[in-house]
Amino acid sequence: MLRCFLRTVFAFYVLPLMAALSVTLAAVAHAEEPISLNSDVQLPDRLWHIKESGSDVPTTVIAPPEPLATPPLETVNVMLDWFLSPQHAPILLAKERGFFRRQGLEVQWQSPGDPSLPTKLLAAGEVDLALGRQSLLHLSAHQGATLIRIATLIETPLNAVITTAEHVSNAPTQNDLEALGTLHFGFTTREGEQLVIPGLVPHVITQSDEDALPPESLHFDAARALTEQKVQAVSDGFYHTLPAQLATEGMEAKVISYETLSIPRHDGLIVMANSQSLNKRADTWEGVVIALEDATNWMINNPNLAWETLITAYPVLDNSINANAWEDLLRRIALRPAALDTRRYRAYEAFLYQRGITDAPLEVEHLAIDPHER
Question: Whole-model pTM above 0.85?
Answer without folding.
Answer: no
